[in-house]
């Protein structure tokens, strides 16, 4: 028992001497370990700090700020892919706008105001138009106020359609109800343009077609029997049912009526 105590005392003495002899090494080790731990904890802090978090999905008409899409004016939704609110389009001779790439949203309220310094009419072309008939509507005004003339109210599935705002300004307003969202629409606009490009004939002056002799209609699409037009019977007119055009009048083919 006495020897055990003695051995124990010797052991602690030796250990103490050992630690004392190599205390500088211990100190260095302690410092190194501490610095390493501090460095490691800084790394973890760096990982946890949300400095520039990206967005999970693309911000189509906006940009990403700390993991959230911030939308341009006229756009809304988590990915800025739905038309939203009011946007003014000014100063370009032609352009394009849409409700969005995919189906529009429920309860949409979207307004585009198109203006220009140009003193000419404005042509709007509706393409790929598909909304829920009678519930989701697009309104087009000739002017930059909703108190101006309503020149078109569209809904359902439409073939390509054109509208001319002679004032050179237009408000386009789209509204959808609570359910059934369709593809929506694409609209191009152009100043100094005429309906259907005057069917490839006639002159376009301030949004109106000046048609050549023998044609009428807003796009010079209707054959017309006029002075100077001498046309024999043709299924396309200008005189129908086998008649022919002579001295500005249709001479009907009497044989058909016997
Ligand atoms: Ca709807």
Tell me the major beta sheet: 5 strands, mixed
Strand order of the largest sheet: 5-7-13-9-10
CATH superfamily of the domain at 81-193: Spermadhesin, CUB domain
Can you tell me the overall shape? rod-shaped
Overall average pLDDT: 85
Radius of gyration over alpha carbons? 39 Å
Low-pLDDT stretches: 46-50
Give the helices and strands as they follow along the chain.
Answer: HHEEEEEEEEEEEEEEEEEEEE
List the helices and strands and how they pair.
Blueprint: H1 2-21, H2 23-48, E1 62-65, E2 68-71, E3 75-76, E4 82-83, E5 85-90, E6 94-98, E7 109-115, E8 122-130, E9 137-142, E10 149-154, E11 157-158, E12 161-165, E13 170-175, E14 184-191, E15 203-205, E16 208-210, E17 215-216, E18 222-223, E19 244-246, E20 249-251
Parallel strand pairs: 5-7
Antiparallel strand pairs: 1-2, 3-4, 6-14, 7-13, 8-11, 8-12, 8-14, 9-10, 9-13, 15-16, 17-18, 19-20
Bound molecules: calcium ion.
Calcium ion (CA) is lined by residues 132, 135-136, 176-177, 179-181.
Structure commentary:
This protein has helices spanning 2-21, 23-48, and strands at residues 62-65, 68-71, 75-76, 82-83, 85-90, 94-98, 109-115, 122-130, 137-142, 149-154, 157-158, 161-165, 170-175, 184-191, 203-205, 208-210, 215-216, 222-223, 244-246, 249-251. The N and C termini lie far apart (148 Å). Among the domains are: 81-193, Jelly Rolls (Sandwich), CATH 2.60.120.290; 198-257, no CATH class. It is an alpha+beta fold and 258 residues long. Helices cover 18% and strands 34% of the residues. A hairpin with a 6-residue loop joins strand 9 and strand 10 (149-154). The chain is rod-shaped. The protein contains 2 helices and 20 strands. Keywords: Disulfide bond, Glycoprotein, Kelch repeat, Repeat. Disulfide bonds join 83-110. It holds the Pfam family EGF_Teneurin.
């Amino acid at each position: 028992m006495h020897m055990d105590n003695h051995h124990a005392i010797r052991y602690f003495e030796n250990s103490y001497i050992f630690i004392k002899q190599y205390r500088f090494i211990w100190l260095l080790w302690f410092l190194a370990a501490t610095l390493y731990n501090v460095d490691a904890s800084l790394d973890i802090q760096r990982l946890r700090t949300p400095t520039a978090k990206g967005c999970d999905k693309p911000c189509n008409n906006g940009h990403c700020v700390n993991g959230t899409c911030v939308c341009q004016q006229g756009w809304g939704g988590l990915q800025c892919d739905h038309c939203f609110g009011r946007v003014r389009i000014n100063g370009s001779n032609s352009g394009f706008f849409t409700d969005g790439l995919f189906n529009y949203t429920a309860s949409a309220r979207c307004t585009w105001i198109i203006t220009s310094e140009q003193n000419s009419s404005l042509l709007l072309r509706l393409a790929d138009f598909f909304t829920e008939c009678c519930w989701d509507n697009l309104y087009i005004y000739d002017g930059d106020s909703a108190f101006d003339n309503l020149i078109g109210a569209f809904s359902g599935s439409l073939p390509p359609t054109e509208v001319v705002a002679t004032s050179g300004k237009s408000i386009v307003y789209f509204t959808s109800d609570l359910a059934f969202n369709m593809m929506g629409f694409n609209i191009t606009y152009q100043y100094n343009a005429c309906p259907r490009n005057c069917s490839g004939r006639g002159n376009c002056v301030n949004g109106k077609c000046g048609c050549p002799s023998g044609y009428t209609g807003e796009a010079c699409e209707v054959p017309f029997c006029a002075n100077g037009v001498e046309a024999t019977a043709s299924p396309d007119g200008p005189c129908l049912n086998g008649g022919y055009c002579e001295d500005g009048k249709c001479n009907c083919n009497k044989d058909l009526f016997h």
